[in-house]
Amino acid sequence: MIDAIAGLLLAYLIGSVPFGLLLTRLAGAGDIRSIGSGNIGATNVLRTGRKGLAAATLLLDGGKGAVAVLIAQRFGAEMAVLAALGAVLGHLFPVWLGFKGGKGVATALGAWLALAWPVGLLAIATWLATALLFRVSSLAALIALAAAPAYALLLADPRRAWVGLVLAVLVIWRHQENIRRLLRGDEPRIRLRKERH
Question: What are the CA-CA distances from residue 1 to residues 50, 87, 117, 126 (Å)?
Fold first, then answer.
């Protein structure tokens, strides 16, 4: 039990590193929390018009989920699953930002790549296909993370599907406002150019 708690805490701390906030500040783009949706993730970083920063944020946020799982895998499959959960919780509720973090999509996908790469690749492909079709990042995220537990049942150890369900619930919960906007039909679409004022 002590090992499990320690592993969960370590994964949480890895997941809580706010790369979007750090990168935009280092690049002189200001506080990402005062831009667009106020989120610290890659989608909001893209709203600064800095595609490189957005890509770096996406990779680093995904990478911290993968790193947490890979470290934990040395101590067993159960620890790896707990690490996936811990990393996403860290991104959602980082202690450094008053427990107000991102929405966990990239971190969850990165964790899946490390837990079961076929599941991770299928979830990413689902995100890309949905995003290209509808140009709505939140919708792509919701569909991809909701599909991941089903992919896990088919392609990975079914005992890992439960963590996919928990991650999906967490991500959906963090997207409550996005879901309301989707239902109203006014959710922002993905834009590749910086908006002019």
Answer: 44, 18, 28, 36
